[in-house]
Each structure stands twice: as C-alpha cells, then as structure tokens.
Write a structure and sequence with these properties.
Layout (H helix, E strand, L loop, with lengths): L1 E2 L3 E3 L4 E3 L4 E2 L9 E2 L5 E6 L2 E6 L10 E2 L10 H12 L6 H4 L13
Parallel strand pairs: 5-8
Antiparallel strand pairs: 1-4, 2-3, 6-7
Length: 109
C-alpha cells in the first residue's frame, strides 16, 4: 500500500499524493470502502491504528475510505474515480442516498 496525502483534482479525475512509504497491513486490507467511512487510520511509526470515527452500531460493517469522501467530492466524481482506480461502482449509503457535497464545488449528476 502506498501511503500518501491525496489531493483530488475533479477536472482530471485523478488524485495526486506525496508518497511517504510502503507498507502491507493484511487485516486493514479486509475493510471495505464507504464514502462515509466509520473508521479513520493513522500511523505511529510503523504501526497503523484504526479508530472509530463515529459510533458504530452492532452489526454495522466497519468501513474505511479509499478516497474520495462524500463531503469533498460529488457522487458522480466519486463513482467515476472509484471505478477507474478500484474497478467497482460504489453502493455505500452515501452514494445510494446521494449525500450532499459539503466543501468545494458541487457537480450534480
């Protein structure tokens, strides 16, 4: 996994980051994506820590955000980016319910 600080460019549909290292975390690789993730990850040296970003209901799937997050990027752009980079159409709750983009320009489908 390439650890980077992604900056999304909706014009080109690409994320640009600044690589800071490589690592393999098999357990975290099992987490599915959500545009409204309930877990946030951070690094302490070579250790990765996953922390609940909000309350997680019993039986609710624990999810991370591969990028991009609904608050910053419209559903159309998120789905386009995820299809291009991960080869799936996102069907998370934020996409199904079309959560509104909060920051930046909004591009409706």
């Amino acid at each position: 996994m390439l650890v980077s600080d992604p900056t999304y460019d909706p014009t080109s549909g690409s994320a640009r980051g600044y690589p800071v290292g490589n690592a393999i975390f098999p357990t975290l690789a099992l987490l599915n994506h959500s545009c409204d993730n309930n877990v946030t990850k951070y690094f302490v040296g070579s250790l990765v820590v996953a922390v609940a970003a909000r309350d997680i209901d019993v039986g609710e799937e624990v999810t991370e955000n591969y990028f991009p997050h609904y608050a910053y990027v419209s559903r159309a752009e998120r789905r386009r980016w995820l299809q291009c980079h991960y080869n799936f159409e996102c069907a998370c709750q934020a996409c199904v319910a079309d959560y509104p983009q909060i920051f930046g320009e909004t591009n409706k489908e």
